[in-house]
Fold these 4 entries.
Entry 1:
Amino acid sequence: MRFGCLQVLLLASLGASGPVALAGTPATPGGAQAVLLQAAGARLLVELVDPAAPLFPGDEVGVYAADPRRDPRTGELVDGFRYAGDGTVTWRGPLVEVQLTRPGSLREGGALVIGTPLGRPPTPAWRPEPVVAEPEPLASVPAPVAEPPRARSRPLRSALAPLGRDLDGRVLGSVHARHLERFGGRRNALRTWGGFAGDGYDSGAATGGVAWIGRPRRGPARVEVGVEGLRGQRWVQGEGEGDEEWGLEPAVGYWMWSRVDSAGLGLAVFGGLGAGVDADGLALAWMAGVRTGDPDRSRIELWWEDRGGLGARAVLDGRVALADSLRLGVRARLGNLPRHDGDFLQTRADGALVASVDPAPWMTVTLAGGLGGYDLLLPDAGLVADAALEVRW
Amino acid sequence: MVTQLLAVVLLALSTPALAGGFSVRSAYTSSYGPDAYGLVHVGAQAGPDLEVGALWVGGNQPALLASAARTLRLHDLLVVRGELLLGMLRREGPSGGFELGARLDAHALTVVVEGGLLAGLGSFAEAGVDTTLAEGWVFQPRLRVETWAGDRDPALRVGLGLRRETASGWWVEVAGSAGGRDVLHMGPGLVLALGRSR
């Protein structure tokens, strides 16, 4: 308290104006506040906090760098500025380039103030003197020396790191930022879809649903909750003999559905749970898969989905972005959805071409069409067609 | 039926081909016996590291599959590629498989190793060394073991290929091979491929 009063009196006596610096909160040196983007030797590329700051090529300036230091009494980190030398403004645009008279050790991303030149050598960064303990005269056994903490080993993260870079070694970046930039900051969407998958033998399933999709600013790339229904018919084996024992019966199921996608452009995992009812009562469903690539542009997804008693299938869905708003790809599904009830080959496959277009940032339309069945014969093939509409806000 | 499906796939993927990166790889392999097959692999690229396409195999065991591939640089000198395939065989029903490959760049030489497995169709393994003859010209000797087209006894083949790359990103490959399961079942093979890097 005494020191605070003394400081106010001292500043008042010196005619200080503006906000009074309180203890532990140093005043900002006069000048233009900036952030150091890049440092290449003595050349600095900085971004001004106030783009209208009066700085012009040829101006002689002094550079002051934010340099937090540890209070030797309390051990706390205290903010402050260090005089980093004088220089000349050599380029002025959206950014400002400053050529220092001698290179200094500056931290990229750190705060700077570009102010009055002092004409003196820069202040060196503070380095505490190492304390050398003298051995005690009678000590015969050296004291154990504590090893410095080792960097935490992350073998899995290291092994997966190449997935997060392109072939030129560039880091692919954040899936969150890409989505927000691409769709104008819209983070919510309503997705409705429906379609039919037949197998050429009057059996197959129509599915449809509606879901809310949220894209958080951080954490999971996508969270989805919705309802989904499946109706169709499947072959079942009855009590009769020969061909009469076979018959078609309805296949029905309705679920509440959820899905979560991890963030990641190189490799992401996703999965979901569903619970509802089908002809046998309580129906549980789940799905799990992996994705590589940007989910809103070029990407490959492979997942397994299990609808309990109604069957399961594997899905491979790959799409390539041809333009900002158009993606084309292929989709293949292998499985037995809806599952038949009898002792015969149930696994079938379907393939479809998929087109996805964004007429506006708030809307995406996806269309898929192809054939499915038990072999590659046209008489045995069934039609596969589905569509989805996603509206964002 | 297979031809119609292939026409649809080719037509659909011709748009990406016109837009930028694509590849079309065709091959015919004969062993002068019952084992012969041809294939066409069409792919659209989203940059050099991701490709989506379709594979048609004809011959003893026709098949049509969707494919998706990702290429990774594990090291400055090492690039690996993985491809997933999912689709259907002509008679055997649904099928799936994978292909894995690696390229190790060592100055003027590039060591190439790849292999794959497709349920019901067979497997293959191939190795070779790419040599740059001149700017844009690459010589590609190959050694291949395969059981494709019927999953029969392994056949051993040797081949020589030539690849031409242009500054605008276009490339063409031509390769010829010979081999088979034994001296009575040997025959020629031919590979034609072209594409454009995006």
Note: The two ends of chain B are 32 Å apart (CA to CA).
Entry 2:
Amino acid sequence: MRGDNPPPVFETYFGLLVLLTLSAGLAAALLAVSAVLGPRRHESATLDPYECGVPSAGDLRRRTSVRYYVTAVLFILFDLEVAFLWAWAVVFHESPLENLAAMGVFIGVLGVGYAYAWAKGAFEWD
Amino acid sequence: MSDTAFAAVFYLFAALSVVPAIMIFVGRDVVHGAFWLLGTLAGFAGLYLMLGADFLGFTQILVYIGGILVLLLFGVMLTQRTPVLLGRTRAARAIPAGIATVALGLFLAKKLIGAPGMSRLSESLKVKGATEPGATRELGSLLLTDYILPFEIASVVLLAALVGAAYVARRGSGENP
């Protein structure tokens, strides 16, 4: 890599890099400051609910209802769809009508599935 | 930005990929492992971006970090028994496994470094930059022209998964159909 010719990737993502560095640095700094300056007094009242809290009940690590899994799977599916939408959106302006139609079919097919899931009650708790 | 900075960022992301991966195997808590995986996936996303694979990099963040990892944590929450600690691997197994891993790593590194594609890659990174962001644009226009049929078929695949999820959901709560 030539030193006088900055790789273009840096120009593109430099802001992102700064943001990542700053947020990671800030998080680390806050944790460090808290660890250094925070008082450590363990009394009987330390773990009590504060003001309007309620005492905790049960085990923290209990099994969750399997119904959440359906929600998670549905989320993944639409998350994947976003990847397609992104690539589509970048080139949308090149031929708007055709691209709109192409994505219309795509979303339409998924819409059928969405309607089916809705009708089957995948979004309902009971 | 110079070579040094580029190399520094590369090693940062490389460390971000490798160190959490080691922690996953060293640690015994499944949930901690899932969170360490976040670092590995993010590190790889950074490496992809450095190679100019913007679509791959951001899809990695969107789908793997945003989706798959959540699914993984869900999986742990749904199935775990308490305590969720994995048994410690016995040395009798860890030592041969470690030797095999190192050997495989060295073999792959040797192959990769010697491969003709690698010098071409570093050349193109040097000159115009495979780093020119635009993979997403190219991918998008290809998806909407030459590969429009696979693109639409992808929606049918997603549809199949949706219908499957809905079916399982219904059967799962079969007590009151």
Note: DSSP finds three helices and no strands in chain A.
Entry 3:
Amino acid sequence: MRLRPVLLSMATLLAIYLLDHQWGTLPPLGRFLDPFQGFWQQAEPQKDNKTENLTLSGLRDEVIIRFDEYRIPHIEAKNNYDLYFAQGYITARDRLWQMDFQSRVASGRLSEVIGEKALELDKYHRRLGLGYAARKMEAYVRQDPQMTQVLEAYAAGINTYISGLKPRDYPLEFKLLNYAPEPWKLINSAYLLKLMSVTLASASNDAYLSNALARFGPDVIKDLFPNYPRREDPIIPSGTTWDFTPLPQPDIPPSRRSNPVEQTQAVDSEEGIGSNNWAMSGSKTRSGLPLLANDPHLELTLPAIWYQVQLTGPDVNVNGVTIPGSPGVIIGFNENVAWGVTNVGSDVLDWYQIQFQDEKRKAYRFGDSFRPTRMVIEKIAVKGKKTVSDTVWYTHHGPVMYGKGEKPKTFPKAANIPEGHAARWVAHLPSNDIKTFYVLNRARNYADYQAALRHYVAPAQNFVFASKDNDIGITPNGYFPLKWRGQGKFLLDGSQPENDWSGRIPVEHNPTVKNPPRGFVSSANQFSADTTYPYYLHWEFSGYERGAQINRQLAKLSKATPADFQALQNDNYSIHAENVRDILVKNTSLPMLSPLEKECLAIVTKWSLRYDAQEIGPTIFDNWYNQVARDIWFDEFSDTDYPMAVPSRDRTVALLAEEETSRWYDNISTPEKETKEKIVTLALKKTVDSLQIALGEKIDTWSWGVAKGTQIQHLARINGLGTATLHVGGSKTCVNAISRFNGPSWRMVISVGDVTHAMGLYPGGQSGNPGSVHYDDQVDSWAKGELHPLFFYRQGGSDSPRIRQTLTLKTKN
Amino acid sequence: MLYVALIIGTFLAQHFLVWWAMVFPCFLAGYFLAKSPSQAFGAGFAMVFIVWATRILSLSIPNGNLLGNRIGQLFFLPDWQANWVIMLLASSFIGGFIGGITCLSGQLFQKKSGISERMAN
């Protein structure tokens, strides 16, 4: 045998092997770069075909899908099965990887495709009981034949799409992460809805508050963490009467107690996941028709959270947005009504301390006896490693998320979870939330709206509504546990039966208002109602500032137009800055300032209180206020080994506004006694220092848009697949609540009953393919605060010039 | 003949099979048609490079080179409008390199009888 050709052939095979395998986070290079099978296949032609026909098995009749210039599908089907089948098919065509990825996140199966780095996240979601919750939801929905058919049709559509794919057709991220799509199961839709509960209804600082209580005692806690804020403008206007007889309130048990819990690290919960919505009666609009607006704020990603669609069927013609993976329309309008949602931050997750009988954890104390636990072994497949088995103990409260010593030390998501406690969470309840949207999609009037809301459990939402017969209303809606006032504010003793939830607030007793005298309704995640509401929902909601600004502006309007609503969605005025700016300026000691600091003070003093992108005032003010708040509280409340809740913005502003002297102004880590003036002045000096380091010496480069640096990242944080930095205004205390990574994930303004004047857009694009022009084709308009006119297809209507492409799905039978 | 065989063979193999399937036509073309090692490597490299580059152009140009530019950033290039050219060259180089060395291997096996007998003696 000769050596040379043999060696060369072996070297060739080795080269192929190396280029066909995944090294670190890089995809297999040969496979990925190959133009015939690899990523170049996802370079989608910029010009769409005008017409396209597909024959699919599983369809019952012909379906026509018309696409407008943003490639929003307008699906017309002759029966509901085909309608949801086609929605599943077309959503998968645009967003398959996102749907797969998100359902893997929710079901704790991410490690299977991206390896060990996702293991703690997988454990977290499994231990939180998402699988338990999704399976309960699936079983419950299956008792409803109509919803079962909708979800099965939708899944069949997705699977028909997947079965037609060859590896070269796999969406880009499958190729990058080197795995293949798998068939869609009905339960995946349940997982995605439960993931919304994780995002919107799993915040909890019970452990931090318990720690603070243990250190400072009840009087301080009552003062600094009150059950109702100083400044509020509740969703249900004060003065609204409650036309029901409330259930008797549960008694506050004498045994209420909270044990301090050792923690490893504290995290700030990022405010900015919230939302705005409002509706105005025709009596206050130029057209005489009601107007409705909604902008839900979430973490902004590409592919976008939302997917736009119009569904036209025998009993429905609805237009709006939904989450890929969820059939129907979640926020939208039809020819008679429009509706929208914002989050209700009610306390629906409580922590119960569990006393196991012994180390075997087979039973736990409840009242005078022991109750058996249920052991669940979660098997987590890990790419390139052995499958991990993780044991979770379930009590009647819910799963014990982390037993003593089980909490990972370096996983920030778990930081606020107390060890040895079981989670009692509404998302674990069986629910058929999707039916709410099914009914709303077909709603004609206020009664339909109220009927739709009955099916909804979690995550609780403020459902705003308007109908063309000029009814408007808003209802903080969902399953609200019936609690004593303050129940679950602190950690609860799970061995005391009187600490359990006492059922639910009857759904007819949920706060609601219809056609209030002021002619409009609104919400921005603030308190659902004032203290006259007989039930306890939570001790703390998002700050009132956005809601107050919305109400102030809406009250001024008399002949409102959609353009007024659009302007309000983009409003950068901050009531928080209005409350605090002058206090900070007045308490600054001029002799202590350098010339540069004096210049900064002058900028803030003259500032318009608007967080506009080109303004420098908000950059200085925002950092200054945050520094003041830290300097007031952190010396007492920040302890790395013993994390505690920090008083809210409302309480901080009240302190600054109302108290000239207070023990909290003094920095306990210095020998001298600080005053309000000193703390405010020093904070300004620190702020100017840190801004110089972060943004440069020249003040005129400190514009808010640059300082904030808003960016829309890829869902899996992949380089190059997000947007560049967007220089946009707004902040979490403005109606236009754009922070660095969060903001209005969909903006919609509807002239109700006149479908030709609907407007909306979201920061993304319909296609999930980074190689498509429709991946991010709405981002620039969004950043400018524009809205796109929404095309509404009507059966038998003439073909609109906005239809760019027609896809006909034919049945194979 | 060698060049035509390489181009057609590579295109068909790549269209229907996996990314490294050009090794079959390249090896065979090298074995049956190449006249010298340098010709074999040069032709194998160049023809596969051309087939890959042409396929990339046919996909990337209608795409306005959007994706090629993004993928460049994924491989840590800056946000340039010419990233796609670098990605095209890098991709085609990988294809060309595998094509070239397999074609060369084929050619080297070709002279089996002559050389090996001489070496055996």
Note: The first helix of chain B runs from residue 2 to 16.
Entry 4:
Amino acid sequence: MSIEIVNISKLFGSFKALKDVNLMIPSGELVALLGPSGCGKTTLLRIIAGLESPDSGSILFNGEEATQRHVGERKIGFVFQHYALFRHMTVFENVAFGLRVKERKIRPNKEQIKSKVFELLRLIQLDHLSEKYPAQLSGGQRQRVALARALAVEPQVLLLDEPFGALDAKVRLELRRWLRRLHDEIQVTSIFVTHDQEEALEVSDLVVVMNEGKVEQIGTPEEVYNHPATPFTFDFLGNVNLFRGRVHKELEPLRDVELVMPKNIGASDAPVVGYVRSHDIEVGREPIDNASYKAEVLHVHAIGPVVKVELFLCETKETVEVELSRTVSRKLALQKGETVFARPRKLRVFSP
Amino acid sequence: MQPARISTKGSQRPHKAGMDEPRAVRWLMIGVALLFLGLFLLIPLAAVFSQALEKGLSVYLAAIREPDAISAIQLTVVAAAVSVPLNMYFGIMAAWAIAKFEFPGKSLLITMIDLPFTVSPIISGMVYVLIFGLQGWFGSWLNDHDIKIIFAVPGIILATVFVTFPFVARELIPLMESQGREEEEAALTLGASGLKTFFLVTLPNIKWGLLYGVILCNARAMGEFGAVSVVSGHIRGSTNTIPLHVEILYNEYNFAAAFAVASLLAMLALVTLAIKSLVEWKMREEV
């Protein structure tokens, strides 16, 4: 089922949580709503679910107007960050809940409910725990039960609100991959909210980057990471170093430097900022061309898979962090206090 | 190389030096608490029972079986039987609205719920006399229609409802607030109606808190003196509750009978405490 979000706005008191958001969620895809706390992603998810109502705008399910529909009639499955399992019911009863509260006419009988519940429990590999209570389960198990419960009513959309936020790092990794595999198997349109860019990039088919109630960029994980459209997106999805400079009228093509410039860069001598990833900077003892910036070595952090070098750019008085492979770093043998030259290989330029 | 040896000489049970009070202080504090308990609780309780049985079991039973005493017991039970369910219903509704929703006037409602606690019971009773009494707002209208509220059973019930108003609500509000809305939201997303959500999800989650509130409400309903005294009129055999009857017997110097009837309230207190402890234990188990 496809979802269309049209001009949705939402105010909480005087705080604008969502400002005229427009979005198209294709059917069957796993979509991530990614952004920092307070950007409106959870509010948007809850509006889609029907747990909040927008102040203006509309939601369309498969092209049909659904804004006024009651939450129970939207055929959605919702998974909460803190599981929200019914604490007084066993795992079986939790998963069976959606089926048991159906109206008498359409309610399946006991046998059908039992087989459906166990089918789902087998899917999440927790059929041996059907008689346990939520308090007796680990966080990861609880979240899987919450997922099974949501799937029991065969929703057309699965909505997950920071589903792995309350779990520890290792479990988070396992479950996020498990979610991807599950999605590949059942192919339900799914939208999940996260502030963890790694999670969004690894799991989803489509990433919606949000900030301050607006959509910054929509694209595949590859598009959004490698071709960020705005400074915010660049910064949020990975590290960023700033190289400030000015526009020169004649841009001589610099050898092996990739420069991505906005179309309307403005007058000559206009100030600009180049956004560069730490692994796109090379360091040498001699300047090569105009792209080499003189810098002082502040710190060399040689622990871990890459060596992180902190440099102080003499001209712009800014600090950058460079990631070098261990091999390169060993060859350079940088010392604290040395003068070197930093040369960005790939810049995305924005007006400041 | 010799393995390191840990000397156990001189160390007794492990103790968190930084956190414990010295033993003497601990015993002193426990001693004071027990003294308080003994002085203000146990001795009076023991006195009630010993005075009640002073003249023997037959006198005790006769005092309780006496017609005025029986009608007092009946009236007490009726007052409780009406006010407890009413306040239970109100308490659940108010706690549910306050804990799960935002609405204008919410803080006002919370303040009003606490009102019967802050007002002296005598004033609570007086208020009803001022409204429904002969010189009161509705006095003449009630008189014309021959409806008796003050100095009759309805007045007693009203006063009892008022003073036991907050108990269930005050118990449920923090409980429901701490439980949050997520389980209810989950139930709604799964297609349950509001009513089904309430009975299948909300109610089981609050059952111990509800029981706790109800038994406190009941204890107060049966034991209320001040407010009921003002509206009652003290008409023997018809508008006396157990506490009022005890007062009458005591004022007539009929101590054995007074304490005999009072021992009924004392037993109610003990039963209430027992149920309360059970509920507290159950609630702790759940957390």
Note: The two ends of chain B are 50 Å apart (CA to CA).
